[in-house]
Amino acid sequence: MSSIDSRAIIVTGGSRGLGLGLTADLVANGYRVATCSRNSTPELEGLVATGKVFWKEGAVGEARDDDAFFSAAEAWAGPNGIWGLVNNAAVSGEGILATFPNVDSEYIIQTNLVGALYMARLAAGHMLRRTTGGRIINISSIIGLRGHTGLAAYSASKAGLDGMTRALAREIGRRQITVNSINPGYLDTSVSASVQEAQRRQIVNRTPLGRLGRVDDISPVVRFLLSDDARFITGQCVVVDGGVSC
Questions:
Q1: Rounded to the nearest 10 degrees, how much is the dihedral formed by the CA atoms of 73, 76, 80, 82?
Q2: How many whole angstroms separate alpha carbon 167 and alpha carbon 22?
Q3: pLDDT digits 0-9 by tens, 122-179
Q4: Among 16, 74, 174, 223, which is most exposed with the fewest C-beta within 10 angstroms?
Q5: Structural domain of residue 148, as residue ranges?
Q6: Which residues does the annotation mark as catalytic?
Q7: 209, pLDDT greater than 70
Q8: CA–CA distance, 243 with 208 (Å, rounded to integer)
Q9: How many Cβ atoms are within 10 Å of 53's Cβ, its own excluded?
Q10: How far is it, in rounded angstroms, from Cα 55 to Cα 125?
Q11: How many Cα atoms are found within 13 Å in the side-chain-facing hemisphere of 101?
Q12: How many CB atoms lie within 10 A of CB 203?
């Protein structure tokens, strides 16, 4: 196996929120990270300046952008190739389905599910050619497992992601490539800052551990699933939600 220092990981949507946190955590723990997003941020630019992070502008779910990013990430990774993919890029939108615009539903499905499928296809092909195993991690959600009022399209995209996880795990497992989902609960990130305070308190009150999740609740699980210690875990949906779904 390659040492961590030589392993390159793709994290989609690494400019803010969970994706930015995962990128920073992986770099701090010895990995190199290639990421893409529609726009950069000062925080991401700071990580790029370390030389451990590669960034390319692109919209996940747009096949041309995905192909261009993956090719650039392969070249940047060098001869050891891409060890892992973290399918993190996602968008949301809230509204009762009966009045929810089709264009918004299509955008959510295209980014969260089709984009993840595109990236997983590219990563799987790369890992199969490399013949040294690999890791694919899909950042899903407890919403995909349990549903939530006003989030039908988002829930459908994440449930589809979990289904893809199980199917792909069967397809490529014999080549020592693992595929797993992580299903976070409600996270306290800049992306969720627009949630009204009353709703946040309601979520916290329903959570047995008494708080929203943080990036540092998710990042150790990502690192574990990327590691050699997780070599016999595949096709699983790992719930990390403080007990809110129990």
A1: -20
A2: 25
A3: 999 999 999 899 999 999 999 999 998 999 999 999 999 999 999 999 999 999 999 9
A4: 174
A5: 4-239
A6: 154
A7: yes
A8: 5
A9: 23
A10: 21
A11: 6
A12: 18
Task: Give 45's contacts (C-beta < 8 A, 6+ positions apart).
Answer: none
Residue 26 has pLDDT above 80, yes or no: yes
CATH number of the domain encompassing residue 175: 3.40.50.720
CA 34 to centroid of chain Cα atoms: 13
Looking at the predicted structure, is the pLDDT value of residue 1 above 90?
no
Q: List helix spans (H) across 29-151.
A: 42-48, 63-77, 102-109, 115-130, 142-146
Q: Could you report the per-residue pLDDT of 59-114, keeping only the tens digit for each?
A: 999 999 999 999 999 999 999 999 999 999 999 999 999 999 999 999 999 999 99
- State the total domains in the chain: 1
Q: What angle do CA 242, 236, 144 make, to 5 degrees?
A: 60
245 part of a folded domain: no
